[in-house]
Amino acid sequence: MRNAKGETGSNILEVKNVDVFYKDSQAVGRACIEVKEQSVTGIIGANGVGKSTILKAIANLQPIRGGEIWFTGKRIDGMRSEHIVQLGISFIMEGRRLFPKMNVLENLLMGAYLRKGRREIKHSLQELFQLFPILKERQTQHAGTLSGGEQQMLAVGRALMSRPRLIMADELSLGLAPIVIQELYRTLMDINKTGISILLVEQQVPMVMKVCDQVFVMEHGRVILQGKPSELLLDEHVIASYIGR
């Protein structure tokens, strides 16, 4: 499942020395993360080390107290969240955050709420239904009645409806069966092949090592290691803490 590519080009996203606090408690300290164009980048680490906070900071759902965040050459920290979406960042939050009493189609259209042009939106829906045929079958079904795997597909589909250049995904595999996780990540790699960059936060470290081009390791709110999976898999600390033998 490894998305085999050569060296990618310039950075689409740069997180530079970012500090994030929850009241007086520092959650992230001087974090630096880069995502290259058309790449798949992962962030791993134990629970509570600041991985999800980084994604929320990029989306400006959690303000930063220091540092800078750049996307496609534009500084975006402090920018309104809807403007960040319009620039091309889509965020699949942990827990999916669907509208359970709305049907599948309505949830998907919510992903396109900032877009104009009904014909283009309809075309995006057709492309999405080719990617996730089950969502086409379930168009009129309430999102809250879908299985966990179908809900996660819907969350990914809603993110795609904004026509992003970067998808950030927080714990896609949470609560899903292994076979569903494999299928979900296979689809995510197909999405990446269309040119969309992906930034993952994921507890399934072996999966991250299979699909990512670059991985960042966080501990205690700081990035302590970064590199290609092939490099990190030789690191004794990574092996002992996240892989095991």
Write a compact overview of the structure shown.
The chain is α/β, with parallel strands linked by helices and 245 residues long.
Notes on the protein architecture:
By secondary structure, the chain is an alpha/beta fold. A 6-stranded mixed sheet has the order 6-7-8-3-9-10, sandwiched between helices. Strands 2-1-4-5 form a 4-stranded antiparallel sheet, covered by helices on one side. It has a domain at 10-88 and 199-245: P-loop containing nucleotide triphosphate hydrolases (Rossmann fold, 3-Layer(aba) Sandwich), CATH 3.40.50.300. It has helices at 51-58, 81-87, 104-110, 118-131, 133-137, 148-160, 178-193, 205-211, 229-232, 236-243, and strands at residues 11-22, 25-36, 40-44, 66-71, 74-75, 89-92, 166-170, 197-201, 214-219, 222-227. The longest helix has 16 residues, at 178-193.
Please supply descriptive tags for the structure shown above.
Rossmann fold, disordered N terminus, four-stranded antiparallel sheet, 245 residues, 26% strand, alpha/beta, six-stranded mixed sheet, 10 helices
Architecture per CATH nomenclature, i.e. the level-2 architecture of one domain:
3-Layer(aba) Sandwich
CATH class of one domain: Alpha Beta
Overall mean confidence score, pLDDT? 92
Largest sheet: 6 strands, mixed
In the CATH hierarchy, what is the superfamily of one domain? P-loop containing nucleotide triphosphate hydrolases
